[in-house]
Structure formats: C-alpha cells, structure tokens
Design goal:
Elements: H1 2-26, H2 49-52, H3 78-82, E1 90-99, E2 105-107, E3 112-117, H4 120-131, E4 148-151, E5 157-163, E6 166-176, E7 186-196, E8 201-203, E9 206-209
C-alpha cells in the first residue's frame, strides 16, 4: 500500500512538473521582446488603401485617369522580414501637415501614422504606388505584423518610441477641404523614408504642398 501511495505521489509530482514546464514554455512576457508589432495594434485601424491602392498626391487630382489594372506584388520575402530586429530604443518624431497655396501650414490633426520597414516588398510599393501612382494588388497579411502605429495630436505632432534600428517608410494622411481649395474634403497621403540607429532621436516632419 505504501508503495502504491509513493508511486502515485511520484507520478503526480512528475505530471505537475511537466504541466508547469509546458505553461512556462508558451508564456511570453510583455517585456521579452518576442511579441510582434502586429500584436501591438488593431488591424482594423489600418487604412488598407494605403498599401493596396494608390498613396500619392494624384489622389487629389480629379482630372488624372487611374489605370484599372493593378500591379502584381513580388512574393512576400519571409526571410527578409524574419531578420528584422523586433525591439529598439530609437525615436521618430515630427509634425504632419500640408502647405496651402499661400504657404500656410494646415496640420494633420488626430490622424493615423505608421512606420513600414524598408524591404524589397515595401520598396516596390513605394516605387510603383507612391511615386508611380499605380494601384497594387492586396498586400500580404503578414506585412501587418511588422508595422508600427501612432496618432498625431491636435497640432499634427506625432512620435514613435522604442523603434528598432533600420530604415522605414513614414506614412500619414492629412484630411483637407475648403481650407486647401477643394470643394469637398480629400485625404492627402504623404510618405518619406527615415533611418534610425540605436537610441537616436530622429526629427522628421511629414509634409507636402497642396496643388
């Protein structure tokens, strides 16, 4: 009887130990650096048109014809994204605004901004869509795991903290209507490339002149 009790006790302890190890193996601390950027944001907050359609000043040009044929994206470079650092101490801050015909600043108030890591995948988007004005096929959903988001204040000021070292496309939108000379409100999206190293604080405004 004593042997049976001893055996049951031993088995119970082994089971408890094994269960505990399994739980610890899959528990990720918020400070571990293992959580992806995608876990820090809500995918529903992403303006899909920023990545799938056309992200240039041509959005505000009513007379310009857009090609209905979408540009095919290159295959999502898994290994390239896998090598990106997940944690960092850098800061990217500035102000988002547009300049009207008189050179007056119109701030992008309470607008969503994001950093998109510079890779062959995002380089194609920047070249074909932002600069070239072409529409593109839907972005691979895995991309959202590598985006970082923030929002501007009432003066258009914004900041990203804890940014890993690397190069990024800084992207934002300014909604402007009659103050920009338009009959109805339009979304003026702006993008530029920034680089961060270590604990560097990068000051970079996001702006363009209204045409």
């Amino acid at each position: 009887m004593a042997k049976k009790i001893s055996l049951l006790f031993t088995l119970s302890m082994m089971l408890l130990l094994f269960t505990g190890c399994v739980e610890r193996e899959f528990t990720v601390s918020p400070d571990s650096g293992l959580n992806s950027w995608g876990e820090e944001t809500n995918i529903d907050d992403v303006n899909i048109s920023d990545l799938d359609e056309n992200l240039t000043e041509t959005e505000t040009m009513i007379t310009e014809e857009m090609d209905d044929q979408k540009v095919a994206r290159i295959p999502f470079p898994v290994e390239e994204y896998y090598r990106l650092p997940r944690t960092g101490k850098g800061t990217v801050k500035g102000t988002i605004y547009v300049l009207d015909a008189y050179g007056e600043k119109i701030a992008g108030k309470g607008t969503r901004l994001y950093l998109n890591p510079a890779t062959s995948y995002s380089d194609q988007w920047y070249r074909e869509s932002y600069l070239g004005g072409s529409k593109m096929e839907k972005a691979d959903s895995r991309l959202f795991n590598y985006l970082r988001f923030t929002a501007s204040d009432s003066d258009g000021g914004f900041a990203f903290y804890g940014v890993p070292s690397g190069s990024y496309y800084l992207i934002g939108t300014v909604k402007c209507g009659t103050e920009c000379g338009y009959d109805s409100p339009k979304n003026i999206r702006i993008a530029t490339k920034v680089s961060v190293h270590g604990n560097q604080v990068v000051q970079r405004d996001l702006s363009r002149r209204v045409e």
